[in-house]
Amino acid sequence: MLAGNLVLGLSTWECDMAYRTLRSWLRHLAETDRLMLAESGVDLDFEVAAVAKRQDGSKAVLFPSPKRGGANAPSVPVIANLLAQRSWVAEALGVEPGEVLSAFRQAVDAPIKSEEISNAPVQQTIIRDPDLLRDLPIPLHNEHDSGPYISAGLVIARNPRTGIQNVSINRLQISTKDRMGILMLPRHLHNFYQAAENQGDVLEVAVAIGVDPATLLASQAIVPIDFDELEIAGALHGHPLRVVKCVSNEVRVPADAEVVIEGRLLPKVRESEGPFAEFPQYYGPAGDREVIEVDAITTRSKPMFHTIVSAGMEHLLLGAIPREATIVALLQRSFPNVIDVHLSLGGVCRYHLFVQIKKRHEGEAKNVIAGAFSAHADIKQVVVVDEDVDVHDPTAVEWAVATRFQASKDLVILKSSLGSKLDPSAQDGISDKMGLDATMPVKREGLDYVVVHVPGEDDPATDQRIAGPASADHEQLQEDG
Ligand code: MN
C-alpha cells in the first residue's frame, strides 16, 4: 500500500523558526524519510484511516488520489499523521524537545497580531455552489461513525459583541451537500453562538483545513475568551500570521491554509450529529446538535486535505501540549517548586497528570494535587513525584508509586466532581478524582531512599572495557564433562 518516498515539487518558503506552511513541514518530513506515499485509489471509506492508523506514531502519510467506493472522488490528496511523535512537535516549532512548553507559554504571553492580505493562496479557487463530498475528500474514519467527518478543521468565528476571533477544532459531520453537524463544548465558540442565537442571528464561521503545525497547536491553547488563538500561531512563528477575509463573510482565515469552508451557524436549528470516535478511544454519542450551512469553499489551486485519525498520536498530542503549557504555568504561580508536568499517553493525554516537584515540606504534594485538579476539569488522576523522577517516563513514575507511596496516607480522593463527559466510566461527566503523593519524606536517615548507583555506570568511557562480542566457540562456554 505504501509506495516509498515522495518529492513535493513545491515552491520553497524557508523558515527562520517554526515551519510556516503545511507544505514546508511536509517537505521536511519527506527529506527525513518520515512521509510515506500511499498508492492511488485508497478508499475514503475506512481505508484511508486504516492505512494512516497503521503508520501512527512513526510516519506521516500522503494519499495522492483517494477514491470513494470506486466512485469519482475530488482529485484532492489527503494527508494524515502530521505530528506522529512528541519530538516532531518540537521540530515543527523549531525548538529543543525540552523547550516546547516554555515556547508555547511565551507565545501565549506575547501574541503577535495577524497581518491581513489580499490575494491569498487559499482563495486561488472559489466554489460558490458547494457540495462537500463532491468538492473535498472527506474520509469516513471509524466503524460506528455516523458518516464522513472533518476532523482537522479549525473553526474560526468572531465574537458578535467584540469582533475578536476565536479558533477551536470541532468535529464536523457531513450531513448534506451543504450542511454540517457540529459538536460544541460549552466554551468560547458556543458562547459566541449563544449570543447570536439569542438575537435570532446566524453566527458567521469559517473552517480552515490544512494549516501548519504551529497554527494547529495554537488552536488548542487554553486561553480566556477574546484571545485570538491565531495570534499565538504568529508568536510561535516569530512572524505575523497572514490572514485573509472570507469571500462570503467577515471572518479572517489563515491565508496559507489549503482549504477554507465558509458558512453560518444557524439559530434555533438542531439536527442529529454523531456518534463519532473521540480521543479516549470510545465513541462520543449522537445527539441533537447545532448546524453549519455552507456558503462557499475556497482552496489553493491544487489543495490537499488534512484529516486527523481519532485517538491517534496527533489527536492526543494536540490535546496534551497546549494543556501542559497552561497547567505548568498555573501550578507554578502557586507552587514555584513545580518543575515539570506531563499528560501521559495511557491517560489519553488529558486525564492523567504527572507532576515533578522539588519537595521542601511534608504535605506539599497534596496541595499540588489540589491545584492540579482545579487546573483543568478533565484531569482525573495526579501523581506527584520528586525531581529525580522523569515525568515523561511512565515506568519511572510507576517506580516512584511502587517505592514512595502508601495508600493509607498518600492517597487523595475527590468524589463526584466535574470531569470529562467522554470518559465512559463517568456519569455524564461526574467523576471521582485521585491524587497520589509519590514523593519521598523530606527527613531521611542513613540509606533510606538512597537510589543505588554503581560508580562508573554513568561514564561512557566504561564501555571501553568491553573487548567485543563473545563467540559461541569461546573455550569457557564449552561443556566441561
Ligand atoms: Mn478561545
Distance between the termini: 56 Å
Helix share of residues?
Answer: 10-25%
Radius of gyration: 25 Å
What share of residues are in beta strands? 15-25%
Q: What bound compounds does this protein have?
A: manganese (II) ion
Total of helices: 12
Q: Could you say what the CATH architecture of the largest domain is?
A: Roll
Describe the fold and architecture.
With 481 residues, this protein is an alpha+beta fold. The chain has two domains: 312 residues, Electron Transport, Fmn-binding Protein, Chain A (Pnp Oxidase, Chain A); 104 residues, UbiD C-terminal domain-like. It is 24% helix and 23% strand. The strands form six sheets. Strands 5, 6, 7, 8, 9, 10, 11, 14 and 19 form a nine-stranded antiparallel β-sheet that branches. Strands 21-22-23-25-24 form a five-stranded mixed β-sheet, sandwiched between helices. A four-stranded mixed β-sheet has the order 1-2-3-20. A hairpin with a 5-residue loop joins strand 16 and strand 17.
Summarize the helices and strands and which ones pair or pack.
Blueprint: H1 22-31, E1 35-37, H2 47-54, E2 60-63, E3 78-80, H3 86-93, H4 100-109, E4 115-116, E5 125-127, H5 132-135, E6 149-150, E7 153-158, E8 165-169, E9 172-176, E10 179-182, H6 188-198, E11 203-209, H7 213-218, H8 229-237, E12 242-245, E13 252-254, E14 259-265, E15 271-273, E16 276-277, E17 283-284, E18 287-289, E19 291-299, E20 305-306, H9 313-334, E21 338-343, E22 352-357, H10 364-375, E23 381-386, H11 394-404, H12 407-410, E24 411-418, E25 430-437
Parallel strand pairs: 1-2, 3-20, 4-12, 22-23, 23-25
Antiparallel strand pairs: 2-3, 5-19, 6-9, 7-8, 7-11, 9-10, 10-19, 11-14, 12-13, 14-19, 15-18, 16-17, 21-22, 24-25
Helix pairs in contact: 4-8, 4-9, 9-10
This protein binds manganese (II) ion (MN).
Manganese (II) ion is lined by residues 166, 188, 223, 227, 229.
